[in-house]
Design a protein that fits this description.
9 helices, elongated, mainly alpha
C-alpha cells in the first residue's frame, strides 16, 4: 500500500474534493472519500458514518468536518479493527499532528462555525452559505488541503516503516 500511495497521481486532490462536495457530501465525508481514493480503498459504510459530522457535528459549528474526516482516515489506516489486531502506535501522534497543522497551516480556527460564519441549525444561514461561492470555495480549499496533508503524513510514515523494515498496520 505504501508504494502505491506515494506514487499516486491519477487525480488532483482539490478537484476530487470539489467533486464530492458538489455531490452533496459533507466535509468529513469528502476528506475520508478522497483519502480512500488515494489508498485504493472503498468503505461506503465509513463514509455514511461520517454524515452526522457535517456543519461541525450535526450543524453545531464545532470541530471542522475536514479534521474529523482526516482523523477517521488515519484511524482506518492505523487503527485496531479486530480483536486480534493491533493499533499502530503512530495513530494518536498522527491525529494530534493533523489537528495542530490544520490550525496553523490550513485555517486559523478548528471550528466550522468560525470558518464558515454559518449556523447550520438555521435554514436561512444554510441557504446563504450554499449561495456563497466564497464560502464554498474556502471549504473546498481546506478539504483538499486536509486530504493532501493526510496523504503526505501517511506517505511519510510508510516511508519510515519501509526503511525500518516494519509493516504499516495489522488491523
Amino acid at each position: 500500500m505504501g508504494d502505491d500511495l506515494r506514487n499516486f497521481a491519477q487525480f488532483d486532490i482539490a478537484e476530487r474534493a470539489a467533486f464530492y462536495l458538489g455531490k452533496g457530501f459533507h466535509c468529513s465525508q469528502t476528506v475520508l472519500h478522497v483519502v480512500q481514493d488515494l489508498l485504493g480503498e472503498e468503505d461506503e459504510a465509513a463514509v455514511r458514518m461520517m454524515g452526522g459530522f457535517g456543519g461541525g457535528i450535526g450543524g453545531m459549528g464545532s470541530v471542522c468536518g475536514a479534521i474529523i474526516g482526516g482523523v477517521a482516515a488515519l484511524g482506518l489506516n492505523r487503527g485496531k479493527g479486530t480483536v486480534e489486531g493491533k493499533e499502530d502506535p503512530s495513530l494518536f501522534p498522527l491525529c494530534a499532528e493533523l489537528y495542530h497543522r490544520f490550525g496553523t497551516e490550513i485555517e486559523t480556527s478548528h471550528f466550522c462555525g468560525d470558518i464558515t460564519g454559518t449556523d447550520f441549525t438555521k435554514p436561512e444561514e444554510v441557504k446563504a452559505y450554499m449561495n456563497s461561492p466564497e464560502k464554498i470555495s474556502r471549504c473546498i480549499r481546506l478539504v483538499g488541503k486536509t486530504a493532501a496533508l493526510v496523504k503526505d503524513m501517511l506517505s511519510r510514515e510508510d516511508a519510515k516503516s519501509s526503511s525500518a523494515g516494519v509493516k504499516s498496520s495489522s488491523r
